[in-house]
From TrEMBL:
Enzyme Commission number(s) from the entry: 2.1.2.5, 4.3.1.4
Keyword Oxidoreductase included in the entry's annotation: no
Metabolic or biological pathway: Amino-acid degradation; L-histidine degradation into L-glutamate; L-glutamate from N-formimidoyl-L-glutamate (transferase route): step 1/1
Pfam families on file: FTCD, FTCD_C, FTCD_N
Entry's localization field: Cytoplasm, Cytoskeleton, Microtubule organizing center, Centrosome, Centriole; Golgi apparatus
GO annotations of cellular component type: centriole
GO molecular function: folic acid binding; formimidoyltetrahydrofolate cyclodeaminase activity; glutamate formimidoyltransferase activity
GO biological process, one term: L-histidine catabolic process to glutamate and formate
Domain of life: Bacteria
Domain Formiminotransferase C-terminal subdomain: 182-294
Coiled coil: 350-377, 477-504
Entry protein name: Formimidoyltransferase-cyclodeaminase
Length: 511
């Protein structure tokens, strides 16, 4: 089955020491289920950009580990490079890819920001869609003055106080974390060693100086060549071909030309197709004229190269397990609840509740999407526990680090199914409304949704409790236990109410 996917493109202030970059990559790939898709290091910028993909919580954990490793290995007091930067891990954007909303990515950014601030003691600033303040939406505004100025101002200037973490800068600097749409990092080199030309062209093309709407640009010197370094924040509205032609035209004005261009990281296929269509002036082109697109579209219905979730569940592998099954079952409950609502909408008999049913269907769809994401998140959380137990313990220092990692992973493995249980309780609340107001012809479907949700809460709760057993006496563990008990009590009450509603409306006595 298709799992929710999020992309993250963390930028690190190191592009000259391969051994440091390799350790950061190892920290990322130590988390099961996360793929390192691409890596780009630039010695002149002294910067590395990595692209990773995976389930939301797994990606968050991988990035956290990489931030911790970068903080150990990169000293910002010693760092020099062409690219603006604030910290060892400079910027961390989350990008929705599949079955993940921008709101989900914002929540990830906030969770990671809080964790980095509290556990690593690194100041964190939120930007783009995750920005907590309007003046921090644009990355360049957050990074203004770079590490050196922030070090001077963070303690004295209220406007520079971080969203999370200490109001003090250490040698790891600060990290900027956010959520955004796909971005193309695109650089054009000039046939010139005059960086002032690149800076003039950058000023012409960037939006903040009156240029192209979705372009951020600066002029830098890279390996003796002037470079216009750009971020294209919406390639659909400002196509890459237009950007290239504008830079090429401006270069001619200054008596030079473009030498070549490069990508940093990955690019959506659609952007390259748009460029090809633009340059070939292909009239009335449709995407299904691409052979590969037509072949993909002609696969037999239901065909998939992925192993189905149920087959994975039945295998001898420890994941997915009960927590993932709880999320899967809860997602089914949300789908059934949405179905009842949609079978009510448009019926004259239920005109008075049509608006409520439309809203209910949308809420159920949103919960289904989040619960679908929780399937992979639960597996990732359990795999992180297993990974922590595999850490070396040859000496006292290693044993101590191992214990810390086990504790953190176990706590997260309790939090994830609790979150599933809480979302499932929301599904039960919607199912109660569907049973009370929805189409009576589908009222047993509302009961099926409620019964599945109640079972899912029981299963998720078992996974919470097994992890809490290893954390006895801790305040956070006690808070999780208390939250779970509240969920259980309300779930029992809701199931009873739904049974009564069905008996009263349909005359069916359910056990």
């Amino acid at each position: 089955m298709a799992y929710p996917l999020v992309e993250c493109i963390p930028n690190y202030s190191e592009g000259r020491r391969p051994e440091v970059i390799d350790q950061i990559k190892t920290a990322i790939t130590s988390v099961p289920g996360v793929k390192l898709l691409d890596g780009h290091s630039d010695p002149d910028h002294n910067r590395t950009v990595l692209t990773i993909l995976g389930a939301p919580q797994a990606v968050k954990e991988a990035v956290f580990r990489s931030i911790r490793k970068a903080a150990e290995l990169i000293d910002m007091d010693q760092h020099q490079g062409e690219h603006p930067r604030l910290g060892a891990t400079d910027v961390v954007p989350f990008v929705p890819i599949r079955d993940v909303s921008m709101a989900d990515c914002v929540a990830l950014a906030q969770e990671l920001g809080r964790q980095v601030g509290e556990e690593l003691g690194i100041p964190v600033y939120l930007y783009e869609a995750a920005a907590a303040r309007p003046e921090r939406v644009n990355l360049e505004d957050v990074r203004r003055g770079q590490y050196e100025l922030l070090k001077e101002e963070i303690e004295s200037n209220p406007a520079r106080q971080p969203d999370f973490g200490p109001v003090k800068l250490g040698k790891a600097g600060a990290t900027i974390i956010g959520a955004r749409e796909p971005l193309i990092a695109y650089n054009i080199y000039l046939n010139s060693d005059d960086v002032s030309i690149a800076k003039k062209i950058a000023k012409t093309v960037r939006f903040s100086s009156g240029g192209l709407r979705y372009v951020k640009a600066m002029g830098v010197m890279v390996e003796g060549q002037a470079q216009v370094s750009m971020n294209l924040t919406n390639f659909r509205k400002t196509p890459i071909a237009l950007v290239y032609e504008t830079v090429a035209r401006e270069a001619q004005r200054y008596g030079t030309s473009t030498h070549h261009s490069e990508l940093v990281g990955l690019i959506p296929q659609e952007a390259l197709v748009d460029a090809a269509v633009w340059y070939t002036q292909m009239d009335q082109f449709e995407s299904d004229q691409i052979l590969e697109n037509r072949l993909n579209g002609d696969e037999p219905e239901g065909a998939s190269s992925d192993t189905s979730f149920l087959e994975e569940l039945a295998s001898a592998a420890p994941t997915p397990g009960g927590g993932s099954a709880a999320a899967f079952t809860a997602a089914e409950a949300a789908a059934l609840t949405a179905m009842v609502a949609r079978l009510t909408v448009g019926k004259k008999k239920y005109a008075e509740v049509e608006a409520q049913m439309q809203a209910l269907a949308e809420q159920a769809d949103a919960l289904r999407s989040k619960l679908n994401a929780a399937i992979a998140e639960d597996s990732a959380a359990f795999e992180a526990v297993m990974q922590a137990y595999r850490l070396p313990k040859a000496d006292e220092a290693q044993a101590g680090q191992r214990e810390i990692a086990i504790h953190a992973a176990t706590l997260e493995a309790a939090r994830v199914p609790l979150k599933t249980a809480e979302m499932t309780l929301d599904v039960m609340r919607l199912a109660e409304q569907a049973a009370a107001q929805g189409n009576t012809n589908a009222i047993t479907d509302a009961w099926s949704a409620a019964a599945l949700a109640h079972a899912a809460i029981s299963c998720a709760g078992a996974n919470v409790r097994i992890n809490l057993a290893a954390l006895t006496g801790e305040k956070e563990a006690e808070a999780i236990q208390s939250s779970l008990e509240k969920v259980d009590r309300e779930a029992d009450s809701l199931l009873k109410n739904i049974r009564e509603n069905i008996k009263n409306r349909a005359g069916i006595d359910l056990l």
